[in-house]
Amino acid sequence: MKISIQINEGPYQHQASDTAYQFAKAAIERGHEIFRVFFYHDGVNNASRFTIPPQDDRNIVNQWAELGIKNANGEPELVVCVAAALRRGILDESEAIKNGIDCNNIHPAFRISGLGQLIEAGIQSDRLVVFGD
Amino acid sequence: MKISIQINEGPYQHQASDTAYQFAKAAIERGHEIFRVFFYHDGVNNASRFTIPPQDDRNIVNQWAELGIKNANGEPELVVCVAAALRRGILDESEAIKNGIDCNNIHPAFRISGLGQLIEAGIQSDRLVVFGD
Amino acid sequence: MAIKKFMYLNRRSSFGTVYAIESLEVVLVAAAFDQDVSLAFIDDGVYQIIEGQNTNGIGMKNFSKTFHALGDYEINKLYVSAESLEERGLSADDLMPLVYEDEDDNWVEKSSVKVVSNAEISKIMSKQDVCFSF
Amino acid sequence: MAIKKFMYLNRRSSFGTVYAIESLEVVLVAAAFDQDVSLAFIDDGVYQIIEGQNTNGIGMKNFSKTFHALGDYEINKLYVSAESLEERGLSADDLMPLVYEDEDDNWVEKSSVKVVSNAEISKIMSKQDVCFSF
Amino acid sequence: MLHTVNKSSFERNSLKSCINTIDDTSVILLIEDGVISATKNINSSMIANLANQGRVYALQGDVEARGVSSKLVDNIKLVDYTGFVDLVVEHGTSVSWV
Amino acid sequence: MLHTVNKSSFERNSLKSCINTIDDTSVILLIEDGVISATKNINSSMIANLANQGRVYALQGDVEARGVSSKLVDNIKLVDYTGFVDLVVEHGTSVSWV
């Protein structure tokens, strides 16, 4: 089955991203396809390549990245909502340049796109599961 | 009176930072001293200089910065907990270099420091008010 | 492409958290996709469409007017829990008069807001393909 | 410098949100400041110190053992709401046996956990100079 | 003491816990979504008595934002942010029921 | 349908709202702090009947993390993350009571 996931909360503060990750991993192991993971609200903070958790703790951003969720064109299907991301300071190279900021902080396993990608995930997938606060 | 503030949530997702800002502004206008604002948990995300809210919305990070809360040595007293910040990807230059990251994202009106600064704020201030989820 | 039924479940009030405004942003985008869209307002979500919101005192954007735009996008199924209203001492009269023009009925202006029981919301929910919660 | 009375108010369980572990991190730092420290566990906060937590299944750090270290830092006033325990079907026997050695009483090992009524927590709270909530 | 509550009594248990724990001299300030608890609703009995004693405040900006100015329980005292600051100064230790 | 609830019935109203709204064929999966509602406590009557009908699941990892394995209401079905995936696949549309 094609399953998509929406994540509304950032890493560490709430368990949402942890649970969603365990769910996505289990779904893949079960032979399902994760069509897309859409990071919305504070969920966009899961995409920061700047996170440095303590050594004895899990690295949530890297866990997501290592799942390697991509589409047939090899593009990441860990998708970060652009409006929510800008509001919270998650930038890719193009948004950084556009806004005159010297640097980006998005992890390369993620990509920034519009809210239409969430609707599309709902249309294209057999199931959509939301994880939030 | 000396008043300190603890903020547990990031910008936009929760009203906590907005309310704390309005409170701090009113306290200063009332002639009180804001001894320190300590950003903990997701509160550290208030310190990102990368945030770009929509043009018709408030810029919470800049609002805090414009309050210009500093100590007698001219150092910012908008203090971000280092452990919480690293976990969530808020870095100053020194932490970025130490962790091999090419860039920092902290707004210059804030500084990163340890949890001891929160305890010290509790000791030194006449009042401490917490804003959270 | 088959039309899917999408429900947006709104359970929180507007300014304490960002969920309400960012939910509305999704709904407006969804309008472009020609799907079947319903909004459910239960629990404190009913406060999202209460009449007379004024954010001057809190320095935040008053986006409640944006709900009036939904009708123009043919989003006109806003289900409000009667029980949630009643528990909160509210009635349908306290809500914003959100309307749409019915193209199948000579463009007559009709109300988009339907106050229904939880049992009815349950039935409507059961027919959805996708439920977004914020 | 005068000693101040600090209370840490814990109202949430351990793994659903980060507040519990980051609160404990503050308490451990506070120990170095020689202030008077009390911890209150009410509502779902009582689950923070329940015996037998095992996080193997959720991929998160089990920091519950860290509570055992508090006694070594002379943090030995852990007040647990009797009403909160009872509502949750729990009793003092379900809690971790957290102890300290009393330097004023020949280093006898004593319990750091005191199950008290909300009325008693209220009295203790009234005497605090600072209350941290997470 | 000053106790602040920032969530609706419908969504969370924080107001109930606060009321269960405060002493006779404490006051409550409802802020953010907490002002929903200042309205006449099925939970109003939780605060009606305290309000009659003049011990319940609500942040005016939050009340107006939520469109409930005309629906408040009797004897709730409205304050602005300056009033919030004054309450913090007057009432000693602050406890946030976040 | 599958309804997930991730908060304790003591802290929030989400379980109550879920139960008030679901139809007779829906099942509930308690995850994260939601598993607290799977324990024997003063709120247990909310789910006891649904559990007896075999319609209440709880995520085992979350139950064990919170140390409440021995305190569950009768007939709660424990699942791991794979079981969670299977519930999503079997029960059609998922609703998250976040």
From TrEMBL, chains C, D:
Q: Which UniProt keywords apply?
A: Transferase
What highest taxon heads this organism's lineage? Bacteria
Q: Which Gene3D superfamilies does this one have? A: DsrEFH-like
Query: Which Pfam families did the record assign?
Result: DsrE
| GO MF, one annotated term | transferase activity
Transferase as UniProt keyword: yes
Entry-linked InterPro entries: DsrEFH-like, Sulphur_relay_DsrE/F-like, Sulphur_relay_TusC/DsrF
PANTHER family linked = PROTEIN TUSC
NCBIfam families documented for this protein: PRK00211.1, sulf_tusC_dsrF
UniProt lists the family membership as follows: Belongs to the DsrF/TusC family.
**What is this protein's record name?**
Sulfurtransferase complex subunit TusC
**What's the source species for this entry?**
Candidatus Vesicomyosocius endoextente
User: What does the record give as the organism's lineage?
Assistant: Bacteria, Pseudomonadati, Pseudomonadota, Gammaproteobacteria, Candidatus Pseudothioglobaceae
